[in-house]
Amino acid sequence: xxxxxxxxxxxxxxxxxxxxxxxxxxxxxxxxxxxxxxxxxxxxxxxxxxxxxxxxxxxxxxxxxxxxxxxxxxxxxxxxxxxxxxxxxxxxxxxxxxxxxxxxxxxxxxxxxxxxxxxxxxxxxxxxxxxxxxxxxxxxxxx
Length: 143
What we know:
single chain; mainly alpha; 2 domains
């Protein structure tokens, strides 16, 4: 009985220690002390995950603006259009094909604009057919 109680206590401690941090807190530490400090603070998390939390925290704190050291060849208006297309078309891959950018870039834009979840493209044949129709209609409306 006692061992069972202790495991519950340890599980609670682990859940508290290893809980996913608030993205705003990660961003504040990264902004004020450097990303290396955020990596050290949450050393049990992969660096990529901490970086993504910092991006999302920056977007939440600063309202989706680009970071000061970001260089892009597309305008912020096109970025907003790409983000909107993801939700309109139902997936990152559809928006990336239309705007001729990579899926990773679209996902980065979504995180920068404060989204942590977004629609995922389905592989079911009927869903793919419906998505192709949405993409065709979207392209036709853009022309």
